[in-house]
């Protein structure tokens, strides 16, 4: 009853208002194992001759976008692919290190499609759709076959079979990998498939272009407004359907493991045009990152979760123990994950490992230099693995990661334990989509990390690459045809009022940034926003802190529009101008994230509310009140966002409090 009253209080205070409930109506009402095949059969087809008359815009060429563009181009559609990098090979997917999951059961350790499905739903703390997750597990094996056929150099065992390793949140070995550069190798496979279609003439690429607005005509997505980042030209591109595959929004925190250019603008502009935003507060904190070293930093570096297979995580049992870790005896070390979670040990899911690290550091057991009076680091130690396997074997599995760590920190992890600490990594929230990956705007499809669909409140390691390639190679090409079967659609003229309005809004926004002549740089605002988000909407949230964050963000956003200064002109390469638009969107997104986190008065996965925890500090869900997807609708600049709830129904998995002990 208390929570109901508090929720009503938030509504009264005007932070948000509730709208009608929503549901995904695309998943067939058949047994779970038959739904994907049934949906593919029921979906209408487009004959090859008609495909040549249809035009698809795809924004983003990471794993989801590149694989979708390649597959749809090969199917005979006309595809235009847009990306802000100078090459698709530089998409942020390249940074993924550890591996990609698939239910192949090569290790004969009782893995299966259902176990991968179960692990993913449980790992997401029972806040994802059964339909989507089962499909993801079902097509996972196909991804590996596709990648091998493309020549992706997965690690192999002595006998020639593909090797597997384990990852957090599971007790089987199902993760395929290419040393510590799996994302790069998979992206090269998708890239060569994409370039094959470029050569064939079915795909046209637009490099160094950033989408700044979505064109919606008569309620349907029909194109984008993009800026040529080299010349500054504002271009209109129209099509029959638009696909967003633009990644996540972790850079709202300023410091994250994301590439510096990663942003939310494409999906946020779509949100402002009517696309619901699902579960924005669900962000993932990765437990194995190199700790912050100073205020000068602009990003953080990820150490692959695969290191937790053989590395052991510990802190000294004595507070403030600053001895060389090699001089601390075994009986004076606390292997706290192994102590607290004996069944999973160092392989607990990311959210649990991250909170555990924060807890021991907050209690004074952290190691390394102090930041704000606290040592924020724990040891990731490979001494036992080197003794057991030999240095050569460890190097074969993790050598490039060890080299990267040494270049950044100056410490040799073969000799001295790594120091790690949690950092913002992935975002489970994103645009709401149905089973077909279509958003609430007809004709707007969303793939990969840009949608919310598969990971609930926490993503298991090695599932990001799986989702991106699943969406791009296998799901989207089998669902977008159902929408395109109504085409070709009537051509939209460039002088259509909706197009003119979109172009005008982009030009006016750019003009404002360049003529405002304030006194503060864009980066200073971004850094301040990031501090607010990390402090109040980061690893732990509370009602008091979230309400304070909303006030601070609103004040900061008002100051941003009043006092931001952007040098240079539009008709040139102008990174300050690019960042200004992105930070403006982050400021709006940040407020929605805090509102979403405030309204969800439970702890689940990566969303940890201080008021909702068990006696031993674990996340405590409230399934009777919050077993739903929070899909937020933009209501206008001065209006409170509208919350639409999609009830989560579990027919094949029992919802229960997670335990990895």
TrEMBL record:
Its EC number is 1.3.5.1. Belongs to the FAD-dependent oxidoreductase 2 family. FRD/SDH subfamily. The active site is at residue 350. It holds the Pfam family FAD_binding_2. Its cofactor is FAD. Residues 56-465 form the FAD-dependent oxidoreductase 2 FAD-binding domain. It catalyses: a quinone + succinate = fumarate + a quinol. It comes from the Bacteria. The gene is sdhA. GO terms for molecular function: electron transfer activity; flavin adenine dinucleotide binding; steroid dehydrogenase activity, acting on the CH-CH group of donors; succinate dehydrogenase (quinone) activity. Keywords: Cell membrane, Electron transport, FAD, Flavoprotein, Membrane, Oxidoreductase, Transport. The lineage of its organism: Bacteria, Bacillati, Actinomycetota, Actinomycetes, Micrococcales. NCBIfam families: PRK07573.1, sdhA_Bsu. This is succinate dehydrogenase. It is found in: Cell membrane. It comes from Georgenia thermotolerans. Gene3D superfamilies: FAD/NAD(P)-binding domain, Fumarate reductase/succinate dehydrogenase flavoprotein-like, C-terminal domain, Succinate dehydrogenase/fumarate reductase flavoprotein, catalytic domain. It is a peripheral membrane protein. It is an enzyme of class 1 (oxidoreductase). One of its GO terms (biological process) is anaerobic respiration. One of its GO terms (cellular component) is plasma membrane. Residues 526-660 form the Fumarate reductase/succinate dehydrogenase flavoprotein-like C-terminal domain.
């Amino acid at each position: 009853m208390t929570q109901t009253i508090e929720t009503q209080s938030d509504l009264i205070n005007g932070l948000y208002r509730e709208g009608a409930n929503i549901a995904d109506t695309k998943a067939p009402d058949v047994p779970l194992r038959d739904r994907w095949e049934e949906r593919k059969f029921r979906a209408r087809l487009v004959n090859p001759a008609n495909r040549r008359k249809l035009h698809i815009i795809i924004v983003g060429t990471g794993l989801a976008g590149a694989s979708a563009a390649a597959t749809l181009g090969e199917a005979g559609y006309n595809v235009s692919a847009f990306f802000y990098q100078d090459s698709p090979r530089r998409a942020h997917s390249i940074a993924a290190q550890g591996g990609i999951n698939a239910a192949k059961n090569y290790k004969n350790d009782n893995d299966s499609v259902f176990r991968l499905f179960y692990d993913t739903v449980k790992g997401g703390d029972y806040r994802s759709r059964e339909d989507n997750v089962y499909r993801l597990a079902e097509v996972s094996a196909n991804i590996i076959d596709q990648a091998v056929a493309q020549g992706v150099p997965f690690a192999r065992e002595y006998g020639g079979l593909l090797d597997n390793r384990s990852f957090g949140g599971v007790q089987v070995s199902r993760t395929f990998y290419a040393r510590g550069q799996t994302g790069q190798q998979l992206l090269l496979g998708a890239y060569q498939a994409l370039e094959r279609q470029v050569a064939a003439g079915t795909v046209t690429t637009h490099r160094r272009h950033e989408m700044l607005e979505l064109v919606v005509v008569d309620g349907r997505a029909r194109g984008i407004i993009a800026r040529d980042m080299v010349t500054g030209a504002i271009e209109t591109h129209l099509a029959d359907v638009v696909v967003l595959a633009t990644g996540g929004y972790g850079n709202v925190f300023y410091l994250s493991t994301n590439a510096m250019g990663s942003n939310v603008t494409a999906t946020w502009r779509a949100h402002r045009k009517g696309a619901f935003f699902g579960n924005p507060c669900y962000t993932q904190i990765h437990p194995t990152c190199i700790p912050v070293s100073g205020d000068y930093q602009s990003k953080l570096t990820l150490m692959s979760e695969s290191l937790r297979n053989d590395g052991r995580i510990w802190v000294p049992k004595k507070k403030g123990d600053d001895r060389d870790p090699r001089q601390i005896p075994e009986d004076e070390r606390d292997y706290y994950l192994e102590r607290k979670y004996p069944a999973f040990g160092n392989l607990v899911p990311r959210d649990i490992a991250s909170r555990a690290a924060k807890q021991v550091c907050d209690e004074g057991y952290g190691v390394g230099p102090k930041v704000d009076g606290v040592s924020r680091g724990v040891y990731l130690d490979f001494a036992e693995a080197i003794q057991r396997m030999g240095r050569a074997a460890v190097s074969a599995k993790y050598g490039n990661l060890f080299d990267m760590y040494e270049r950044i920190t100056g410490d040799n992890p073969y000799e001295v334990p790594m120091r790690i600490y949690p950092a913002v990594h992935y975002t489970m929230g994103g645009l709401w989509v149905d089973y077909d990956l279509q958003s609430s705007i007809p004709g707007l499809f969303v793939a990969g990390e840009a949608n919310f669909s598969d990971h609930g409140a926490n993503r298991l390691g090695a599932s990001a690459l799986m989702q991106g390639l699943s969406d791009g190679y296998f799901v989207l090409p089998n669902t977008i045809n159902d929408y395109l079967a109504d085409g070709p659609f009537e051509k939209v003229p460039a002088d259509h009022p909706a197009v003119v309005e979109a172009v005008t809004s982009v030009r006016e926004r750019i003009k404002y940034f360049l003529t405002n002549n304030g006194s503060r740089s864009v980066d200073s605002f971004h850094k301040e926003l990031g501090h607010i988000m990390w402090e109040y909407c980061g690893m732990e949230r509370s009602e008091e802190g979230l309400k304070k964050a909303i006030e601070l963000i609103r004040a900061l956003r008002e100051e941003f529009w009043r006092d931001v200064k952007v040098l240079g002109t539009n008709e040139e390469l102008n990174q300050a101008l690019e960042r200004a638009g992105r930070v403006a969107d982050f400021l709006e997104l940040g407020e929605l994230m805090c509102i979403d986190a405030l309204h969800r008065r439970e702890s689940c996965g990566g969303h940890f509310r201080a008021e909702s925890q068990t006696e031993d500090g674990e996340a405590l869900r409230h399934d009777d009140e919050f077993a739903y997807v929070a899909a937020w609708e933009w209501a206008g600049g001065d209006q409170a966002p509208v919350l639409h709830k999609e009830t989560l129904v579990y027919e094949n998995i029992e919802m229960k409090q997670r335990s990895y002990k």
